[in-house]
What we know:
With 67 residues, this protein is mostly helical. It has one domain (2-66): Helix Hairpins, CATH 1.10.287. Helix content is 82%, strand content 0%. It has helices at residues 2-6, 10-34, 42-66. The longest helix is centred in the N-terminal third of the chain and has 25 residues, at 10-34. The chain is elongated, with a radius of gyration of 14 Å. It starts with a helix and ends with a helix.
Amino acid sequence: MKEDLRQLSVEDLARELENSRAKIREARYQFAVTRTLENSRLIRNERKRVAQLLTIARERELISQRK
């Protein structure tokens, strides 16, 4: 999965990051307000995905600064 993320372009990384953040917001809303969150691990998994995406973006930024 991580290797698949590394193959994405900068625009695709940004899109995936926004999608993951939206999933987190919706899951938190479902848990806090409606108490109908089916998968309790969803928030944790999406937070990890956001961290992976941010790490990949930062690595690319540092590589471009070295050149």
